[in-house]
Amino acid sequence: VNTVASENPDEAGRYSMDVEHGQYSVTLLVEGFPPSHAGTITVYEGSRPGTLNDFLGAMTEDDVRPEALRRFEQMVEEVSRNASAVAQNTAA
């Protein structure tokens, strides 16, 4: 589902939007400037209210994955070292 919504800030620059849970691409539109992609936010069913910056800075599954891959690679290296040690001990 693709939904487009916009909100104009008040004189102090404040704005508020109530949104359903889901993933949103945030684009800033400032008169006289080209559109600027601010990022992608994810609003979960249990998300607490917050600022746009709160959601733009929130960790997602994609942020966690690289660390998990690094740990997996370390485990593979350790298993490889252990297998080599077992092979050497068996040959001796």
From TrEMBL:
Query: Cross-referenced InterPro entries, in alphabetical order?
Result: Stf-like_N
Specify the Lambda-like tail fibre protein N-terminal domain's residue ranges. 1-91
One Pfam family of this protein, by short name?
A: phage_tail_N
- Name it: Prophage tail fiber N-terminal domain-containing protein
The organism is Escherichia marmotae
